[in-house]
Structure formats: structure tokens, C-alpha cells
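Translate sequence into C-alpha cells.
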Amino acid sequence: MFSYYAAIVKNLRGVVIFDPEASGSWDKVKWLVKKFRYRNLGLPPVIVEKYREKLSKYLGGSPFIELAYPIAEVKILPAVMKEHGVPDELAEALVLASVYISPLLVIGEKYVKLLEQYSIDKVLVCRELNDNEWKLHLRIADYSILDMYKERVFEILNAIENNMLNQELLRNISEKRRDDVAKDKKRYWRITCDHGKPFILYIDMIDVVAKTIGVEKFIELIRNKKELAAGLSVVPAVNLG
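Result follows.
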């Protein structure tokens, strides 16, 4: 599956999570189709499997493609999250967004509320964005995950490879990630306000998995499994409404 990953990752502009049964969700899908006519958007396999018939005309790069795990071992992360109460489609979407170094594009209040529980910080907006603002800030969200990815993922990768995992190290990594996010929020100065609805929710995947299953279990889970580091970045989740 790595060859499939390599073929699509460069042209991928986001991982989408939505409930096709929810009211208004297809209007947002059509909006995405229009905005990403020449780019690809990824869908978690669990969503495609459940709604393949409804999604069929949008699959194959128009603009949606079904994502795959480039390394089978990464499936451990969404599996353990699901076991501890995280909806399987959300767990898979978050991990794949990290693996594909893409923002998570969120359609539906249900998922926004769930993600608020996991977020370490957020960007709020007080008004509707126009088309140009959407275009700009979706591109900025691309940079948000990319610019934080290398250093922070390499940090946890190095800890795994050198058997340095402990609670103190994880706290240190968490603090650095929060500092990164505080700086990254400034990119959205054109639209941000002090009170309003979430536009960007920052999801630290180490924080999510560790809190979901417990820190000690998390340390044991990733010990000697360096491939899991790819699924443990900070994912910016964009609220599309």
C-alpha cells in the first residue's frame, strides 16, 4: 500500500469526515467538490465502506479518494481508540490525517463537538467567511500541519527508537506542541476573534490516545513501534459547518 500512498499524498488537500445521513451534509460535499475540482480529498475507509453507493459518483478523484494505510501497523492506533469509545470513523480520520500530513475537514456539528473534547487549542471566528477567505485559510491549514509535523513527529520517533519513553518526556513533548500551536494560531489573524464558533481545532494525537487509553498503556502501546509515530502529529481540524 505504500506505493498507493506515495502516488496520492502530494495532491491530497485534506481528509474529510462527515455523516452522509445528516441534514445538510451533502450541500457541504457539493461545496467541497466545487472548491477542490483539481485536487484530491481523502475519505477514511470506514466511511467509504458504509456509504459506498451514495459516494460512488464522487470517488476516484472527483474529488474524493479512499485512503489506505501505507503501513499496516498504523491501524493499531484507530483500533485502540475505538476500543475505548472514540467513534471508529473519527479515530480513523484523525490517524489518517496525521499519516497523510493533511488537515482534517469536518462536516457536521456532531463531529465538531466531539473534537472540541480532544482539542488542545482552537481558532474562533465570529462571522461567515467569503470564498476568498475560505480558499486562503484552507491553504493555511495545510501549512499548519506540515510545518509542525517534521520536528514533533521526529521527536516522538526518536524517543521510540531510543527507548526513552516515559511520562516526563511526554509532558515535555506536549508542552512544546502547545507552544507550536500558540504560534500557529497567529496565521489566522485575518479572521480570528475572542468569542465565536470554532474554525480550527488543534488535535494533539499523542494527547488524544494517551488520555483515551491511559498514559502507561500508551507508552507500552507504542514502545518499539516506530511506525506509529506517523499517526501521532498535531492535526488541525477545520470546521466546515
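Note: The chain has one domain: 2-239.
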